[in-house]
């Protein structure tokens, strides 16, 4: 089970579910950081839903709450 590091509360149920699935499905050496902002060049802020920190890489995930078939 991965360790969860919350910065802010999840925005919606889709984000909460994504955190649960990743937490329960990833190994314990993984870290899940969620709901934080990064400042880009020019001073613009960007919201990050999830970042998964693995031993070999960092994955940034944008969660969408779309249901059904996507074509």
How would you explain this protein's 3D organization?
The chain has 71 residues and is α+β, with helices and mostly antiparallel strands. It has 1 helix and 4 strands; from the N terminus they run βαβββ. The protein has a 4-stranded mixed β-sheet, covered by helices on one side. Helix 1 links the parallel strand 1 and strand 2.
Give the spatial strand order of the biggest sheet: 1-2-3-4
SSE order: EHEEE
User: Could you estimate the helical fraction of the residues in percent?
Assistant: 10-25%
**Separation, N- and C-terminal Cα atoms:** 33 Å
Shape: globular
Q: Overall pLDDT, averaged?
A: 95
- Per DSSP, the total helix count is 1
Number of strands: 4
Radius of gyration: 13 Å
Q: Which segments are poorly predicted (pLDDT under 50) over 5 or more consecutive residues?
A: none
The fraction of residues in strands falls at: 35-45%
Mind describing the biggest β-sheet? 4 strands, mixed
SS-derived structural category: alpha+beta
């Amino acid at each position: 089970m991965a360790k969860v590091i919350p910065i802010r509360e999840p925005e919606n149920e889709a984000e909460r579910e994504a955190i649960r699935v990743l937490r329960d499905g990833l190994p314990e050496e993984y870290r899940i950081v969620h709901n934080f902002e990064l400042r880009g060049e020019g001073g613009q802020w960007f919201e990050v839903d999830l970042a998964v920190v693995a031993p070999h890489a960092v994955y940034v995930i944008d969660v969408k709450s779309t249901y059904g078939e996507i074509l």
